[in-house]
Write a structure and sequence with these properties.
Number of helices: 12
Largest sheet: 7 strands, mixed
Structural class: alpha/beta
Shape: globular
Number of strands: 13
Distance between the termini: 33 Å
Amino acid sequence: MKSGTTRAAAERLDTADPLAAFRDRFVITDPELIYLDGNSLGRLPAATPELLREVVERGWGDGLVRSWQGWIDWGARLGDRLAEHVLGARPGEVVVSDSTSVNLYKLASAALDAAPGRGTVLMDAEDFPTNRYVLQGLAAQRGLRLRRLASDPDGGLSPDRLRAALGQDVALVVLSLVSYRSGALLDMAAVNELARAAGVRVLWDLSHAAGAVPVELAATGADLAVGCTYKYLNGGPGSPAYLYVRRELQPELRQPVWGWFGQREQFLMGPEYDPVPSIERFLVSTPPLLSLAAIDPALAVVEEAGVRRIRAKGQLLGRLVTELADEWLAPLGFRPASPGQPERRGSHVSLHHPDAWRICQTLASDAKVICDYRVPDRLRIGPSPLYTRFTEVWDAMDRLREVVTHGTHLSRPAELARVT
């Protein structure tokens, strides 16, 4: 065994970890359970239940409708915090609202309206399914051509393939900064530069990037972006998403769902829709306040830790996963399904194995290791730097090795469950 992949080496990394104390800021009810699915749903921040209790009991219970005086612009205030600490955007360019899919629809529709005469939408063929479905619907509705660019399922989209596809007929490019399946990380600055040269806007999905890797929307000249808050941002299951629109674009883009939260002089109840000129024009209606509130304490932890420190630890955690996989799991039929270099991927690592689904089930039921499965035959391992220890990664990989060595997974059903 290499000296760098011993458990003692993992213990030394834990001792030296500048983010180690943040683990105590999360609810961990079972210390023996190793949770490596933070790329799907982050753990519960310890401060969240108390804040929600306050919002429910004092805000709703005592303040009643009067509490809207403080609630009304919470989405914009959270958006500004995301802009400053997570997304590298300017004040007034990010707002929290709706779901990622709804925001993708709103911004894609607005961008297409602003590109008349162009008939092609580009996307990565390996992108998240909802993104494909939303764009398929828009293309069918508008008589556009949706072109899905072939890309390496493990290595991601080639910049050369994107460059070759850009042309005068392209109205919009939709890409994920970090691939949901492989973790492959695109170069935002390079992609934005290619698109600008072709006169095309890019709509970024930041769901697997925000809170895990530094994002620089303003510095790279990004036009549009969306993303969720329940993965590395730990906002809770189904917590509201966010959208970003570059300040200079806001007055000229009009989203398709006209609602009263985007209306100028909202409470005058005007007879005609007249959207505000700011980021709030991309809002629609009354937000789910309790879910919105849960983002507040979760974001505070990310702000305090700092995304660059989170990224540094995430790269070390991912390196440990890949080194142990090479050493222990390759002889057992696993192969890497993510870029090999830490700087070319986000914070999760995928491994391919023909029995990945049955292995994933067995890890959860028999070995107390939670990760997840994605087709085809990928085991996704997503350590979240704010609460995952290096020794947890070492122990999880050791338990994974034991499960496969002893064939424990072979008794599990091969049919996929409703949730994987």
